[in-house]
Amino acid sequence: MKIGCIQLNVGFGKVEENFARAEEKIREAAKQGAEIIVLPEMWNTGYALEKLSELADVNGERSKAFLSNLAKELGVHIVGGSVSTKKGDKFYNTMYTFDNNGELVGEYNKAHLFRLMDEHLYLEAGDEMNRFALGDIEAAGVICYDIRFPEWLRAHALDGAKVLFVPAQWPTPRIDHWNTLLQARAIENQCFVIAVNRISRKVENFNGQSMIIQPWGEVLWVGAEDEEVAVIDVDFSIVDEVRGRIPVYDDRRPALYSGVVTEN
Ligand SMILES: NC(=O)CCC(=O)C(=O)O
């Protein structure tokens, strides 16, 4: 299966520019043969949180129509990164996923809000999981900071996900955490992790390094430190073989773990 990862250079608050750029890159990935295309986090507005009342996509209508139409026209699955949305009087960081018929298969509001980037001051957290299938591929999607919560990704893996998609805006100063956490999530859940970070060349400090990690922990691909459309071949069938090699799911002892979890 060919995965198209789009390391987009997201313009701060530049919605029109971002839509045009995303469309150009999605078309480019499809032209290169991508069957699943993945975008980064908050690609419509960037982190222009103070301007959300002006810029956020009301009920995600524009983003949904955009992603659905392209998925259908190009015959590709699109894991639509995430976009800032307004639902009722609240704002969210929302991930939409469309299959290659243009059908919405996943809608997810980021569950863990990242205080260092002020998300908690502007956004509402979601509390639903994000499990979906793309054809016969059992998958799930979480967003950026969510990867610091292993129990959240484990919940999706226990629910059957074999591929975890992670759109992100992960800044350069913590890129070592990004590398390590993504690899850990792949190894512990024995699943593919496909993580797409944004890029920026100006004030904001994002250097890409998107990653595809295999269920045994091998890094299959790392993105360049520049805007990039990369199409990478992956073999999802190895998940079952890896899970058979070390039967972590059979060896889990959930009865032990519930006793050690403490509330703060
Ligand atoms: N956009 C995000 O959620 C950033 C998360 C991050 O940078 C981290 O260190 O965690």
From TrEMBL:
GO terms for molecular function: hydrolase activity. Keywords: Hydrolase. Residues 1-236 form the CN hydrolase domain. It comes from the Bacteria. The keyword Cell cycle does not apply. InterPro entries: C-N_Hydrolase, C-N_Hydrolase_sf. The keyword Hydrolase applies. Belongs to the carbon-nitrogen hydrolase superfamily. NIT1/NIT2 family. PANTHER family: DEAMINATED GLUTATHIONE AMIDASE, NITRILASE-RELATED. This is Carbon-nitrogen family hydrolase.
